[in-house]
Amino acid sequence: MAAAAAQSLVNVAALGGSLRKASSNRGLLRAAIELSKSIDGLTVEYVDISSLPFVNTDLIVNGTYPREVEAFRQKILAADSVLFASPEYNYSVSGPLKNAIDWGSLAPNVWGDKAAAVVSAGGGFGGGRSHYHLRQSGVYLDLHFINKPELCLNRFQPPEKFDGDGNLIDASAIAQLKEVLLALQKLALRLK
Asked: How many CB atoms lie under 10 A from the CB of residue 76?
């Protein structure tokens, strides 16, 4: 029985495309971590990408990645799935997130055959255009994104979605985020 329970555990690596502490996209990840405590068989761990250097293959010496990059790659490799919180910059993903994706894609690709989901918060379309670019990259990376539900949260539309520290406070958005996590867990279990 214990082996079956261990087999059904889904470990999610959570990456935020904004480096700001009070970012609403990081707030989505904090909420996902909190929500995961109420979902049997799911753990969400925040993976910090702020210390990753810009991708530069000159930094790979004798086949060895820089220490920060290798630590990041090992966390992604150990995860069953990935949750991206992607702000939208110029209709695409942010530079820090793209940088992390690129480091993980270098041989051997640590993203391959993992379930993935993307959520976002922002103005207008709620960061939704970043979803499309991230999904395009996911094709090459062999990531398997959930199709639905989607969470593109217009953070400026009433009611208030986040408090002053960037924490998600809107009950409807929290419920939507939980549905994303459940769909991600379901896909990850299918891919295991």
From this structure: 19
- 91 Rama sector, left if φ>0, alpha if ψ -120 to 50, beta otherwise: left
Q: Which range marks the domain in which residue 49 is found?
A: 10-191
How many Cβ atoms sit within 10 Å of the Cβ of residue 131?
23
Predicted TM-score (pTM) above 0.85:
yes
Residue 1, domain member (yes or no): no
d(CA 48, CA 163): 22
Is the model's pLDDT at 2 over the cut of 50? no
Beta-bridged to residue 120, according to DSSP, are 152
Q: What is the pLDDT of residue 100?
A: 98
List the CATH number of the domain containing 75: 3.40.50.360
Q: How many structural domains is the chain composed of?
A: 1
Q: At what angle do helices 24-36 and 171-191 cross, to 10 degrees?
A: 60
Is residue 5 domain-resident? no
Residue-wise pLDDT for 52-111, tens only, equals 999 999 999 999 999 999 999 999 999 999 999 999 999 999 999 999 999 999 999 999
Return the percent helix, strand and coil in the chain, to nearest 5: 40, 20, 40
